[in-house]
Structure prediction request, 933 residues.
Amino acid sequence: MKHFINTDEVEDLVALANEGLVLKKQGVGKKPGEGKVLTCLYLNPSLRTRLSTEIAARKLGMECINLAADSAWKLETRSGIVMDGDAAEHLKEQAEVLGRYSDIIAIRAFPLLKDAQEDYHDDFITRFAKYCDIPLVSLESGSLHPLQGLADLMTIQETKKVARPKIVLTWAPHPRQLPQSVANSFSRTIQQAGFDLTIACPEGMELSEEYTGQATLVHDQEEAFEGADYIYAKNWSSFHDYGRTIQRPDWTVTQEKMSRTNQGRFMHCLPVRRNVVVSDDVLDSEASLVGQQAENRIYAAQAVLKNLLSQ
Amino acid sequence: MKHFINTDEVEDLVALANEGLVLKKQGVGKKPGEGKVLTCLYLNPSLRTRLSTEIAARKLGMECINLAADSAWKLETRSGIVMDGDAAEHLKEQAEVLGRYSDIIAIRAFPLLKDAQEDYHDDFITRFAKYCDIPLVSLESGSLHPLQGLADLMTIQETKKVARPKIVLTWAPHPRQLPQSVANSFSRTIQQAGFDLTIACPEGMELSEEYTGQATLVHDQEEAFEGADYIYAKNWSSFHDYGRTIQRPDWTVTQEKMSRTNQGRFMHCLPVRRNVVVSDDVLDSEASLVGQQAENRIYAAQAVLKNLLSQ
Amino acid sequence: MKHFINTDEVEDLVALANEGLVLKKQGVGKKPGEGKVLTCLYLNPSLRTRLSTEIAARKLGMECINLAADSAWKLETRSGIVMDGDAAEHLKEQAEVLGRYSDIIAIRAFPLLKDAQEDYHDDFITRFAKYCDIPLVSLESGSLHPLQGLADLMTIQETKKVARPKIVLTWAPHPRQLPQSVANSFSRTIQQAGFDLTIACPEGMELSEEYTGQATLVHDQEEAFEGADYIYAKNWSSFHDYGRTIQRPDWTVTQEKMSRTNQGRFMHCLPVRRNVVVSDDVLDSEASLVGQQAENRIYAAQAVLKNLLSQ
Prediction:
């Protein structure tokens, strides 16, 4: 692969996930990243992503430099503009310079949730890639969170008891307006790996057709939970009425709903709002995989970085 | 030792201090921290602590990651709450994830100085430890600053001219409300190492009995200074009228007061307010050990980290 | 050399530039910085400087610690003051402690542009050096930006087609009040290396005589561009009417003006305001060297650090 902005460009995603699991067990061996630089550009806040990426890079022997966007000065992204306002630097120069300074660049740039076209096909990472000639890694783009998707796939690979588990992605309540990125990447990644997926959400909250793919769509959450091996909970704002949020407290994942599953495991990407997205008893139970998912972020990032370094 | 939250759990504190001094002289040798991660969580500002801890860790071969609290999002610490407000993540998840990402976690969490019980026995570090199964290091807790205490002990070990020097901890003025942590740790550490201690403070500013221990309590500062080999100055707010501050400019450490000592050395943990805590002439004199104390923070941290890594 | 605060103290600047170019080609070889600490103190924002310096240090094997000024607490710089206000620490203690923690300290401290004497001869770095006994590196001082000057010299060494190219430093428009530092360092460095320099600026915007040196001064920009091999554009505020700014949109560097040169290359230190300092077509043309200049910052810093480490 050239970049890692979405998982579509990964020829064999399962092999990449397995590579992550091997790295987890055997460590990095001789350090392929010695003398190489990863620069991480955070346009949005991050905890797990920042830590897991930095730890992954450093254990590979790479230097890792974290930059908060606008930490130095405001960036101009429009073309042909007379820069006599607030912005002191243009994206073009910043991308070129970071490209010259780094061997790989990783970028987190959340969607604005106002214009689906811009968020999905012309977001910050896409524009950055135009002026920068080295591998880019998405740390969450306008439409996807592929490292999360890869870590989630690794977690299912590690824990599944049957070859074809029933995997359910369920919409859950949240007080804020959130992107569809994590849900899109989970849906895409799981299906790309050859699993079946059921997506449960209130009417109007369906994901884009592009990322729904062949998933079975259900609007009755309890029906979806029947016999499930994995319940992946996540809130997202509407794609079809782009950015709209709804309040549906009846969609919180509870122990009672979990009892309909086949001793299903609970998954969430974190951070999670307790007793809004999911009840304390589910999150604190043995069924919860959230810590393991978070830990796998390190090895997902290592697998990706190692792969990019070996190009 | 399992954690390093207070020095009580250190079986032989002097041996640990001596180990720090050996590290200072001989360096770390082969790196025991290779491939290990120290995550430092700063809920409060830090200069010496951040730098000395990071340098200590890196020279041991560890990766060191610094996190400012709330740099990603607000943290919920209460149990059983419906998280529909500002806080996006619960302490439980953050502690579990940082535990999975790290080999050692270090935390700075100042007391709020409103409730002694909470600050002394149920502070942030105590609650964090409940959900995290790896060694923790206090970078200053609600009641203690044990790395400072260890560095101070190392400084006395390095400079003492007699086996049992007269050591005086004196309260000093300060415009702000400060914790008792540094004073508590100095008192505890010095006595734990077998030295006698005299504590001088205005009436009402006595430390807790728990941390006063066997120290000789004096309310007349000049009497305390007579024949002293070490004067350790520090402001703290009241323990017994919890958090109350007083203004006593007559308690500033001056050259004239120092002349009563036995060519006593001056100590302070820094940062220090010149001509409030201590006069320029004392701080700029040969008697001052403040730079050496600060330098010893590196080797105190190294001794502690090395010890925790070898468990 | 002892410090690197200005290039005057460098005995053979060209040799140092060449050393940078050798580092660029051959890498650092065995790491001379192993176990050494570079602490970078940023009193002002930085992107290229922070990244290039950190990358340079780490590739040399050094640890690099970045500190934002006032990130811990406000610093007092005046002498003899009673510190009962906002500032919690004095420059004296901070300089001594950072000196004990580090092997080299690098400082960025922009001028205030109110008092030329203070900015040019008694700035933060000068005062810091009084209390700190290890090598200092300027990451831009009150009057100079010597690492930029060195990188610019390296860029000319790499690209020049004749032994004595015509080099022009031209004032250019900018909406903000900027220091003279980059211009001063370019003028000084180029002349120190034995090149001739032409400086073009509106009347009243001449650099100090100290840094103008033997340069040919021209007030007609187009005349200056005639036959030039290099056009270095930069805005600066007035030295002689200290800190005054002027608006002269007719001084923007355009393609039409560049056509008067001898296929001249365009240089700028970045960040650059497009269509204010220079037009898009010049910046996006093959003539532009701005990316190469930025890249050379890494190797300029490496050459300087390596030299300081070998003292």
The first helix of chain B runs from residue 13 to 26. Chain B has two domains: 7-144+296-309, 148-294. The longest strand of chain B covers residues 37-42.
